[in-house]
Amino acid sequence: MKIDGFSIKGIHYSNEDSLSVLQIADNKAIAVLADGMGGLTFGKVAADLIVNSITDFVCEHEGELAVQDLLNQALEYADEMVSQKSLVTHSKMGAAVAIAFIDGSNIHYTWQGNVRIYLFGHGKVAQLTLDHTLDVGYGKQLLTRCIKGAGIRPDVPYQCEKANTGSVLLLCTDGLYKQIEVCQVFDKALPIDGKYEDDASLIKIEL
Prior knowledge:
The protein is α+β, with helices and mostly antiparallel strands. The protein has a single domain (2-206), classed as PPM-type phosphatase domain (Phosphatase 2c, domain 1). The chain has three helices and twelve strands. The strands form three sheets. A five-stranded antiparallel sheet has the order 1-12-11-6-7. Helix 1 packs antiparallel against helix 2. The longest helix is centred in the middle third of the chain and has 23 residues, at 67-89.
């Protein structure tokens, strides 16, 4: 397993993304990528808190729960941490997030918002996630799901995908996939140079 990634600020925006990849064993890893909500205060604080909370929860409880329950409860724990932080800072904060838990050839994943997960294998690219967004016109979209300390909807999306040796998994924020064709990312060295309008982040895992 080869792990790489990068996170950079955009031309017009500061970097409110946060990422973490932790290899738990030779064939097991947890990857988390969060994109702080720019319309709320403390977007970077929220993204960091969510990524750290999810990673810590998964590492502490991995092996105790079925993977779907593990990821669901990790999201709930992160949401509670954001709620507590919001109370302390008297502010609203939140982030979109995607999680991938790799266990051998199985990729378990869940998400809230528009951070995407892609899988490349057998010469094809598949987008595994569907954006939780609403088009409100004028080129703007609103998140219909995220983590902002207000509770998690019970119908949390969860999937498990089989991957072959040599497959490549990507987690990326909209600042990246709106500017670069994702199919070009799989064989490029990181970081990918360029002037990004928005903050852009990517996790790349070669299986």
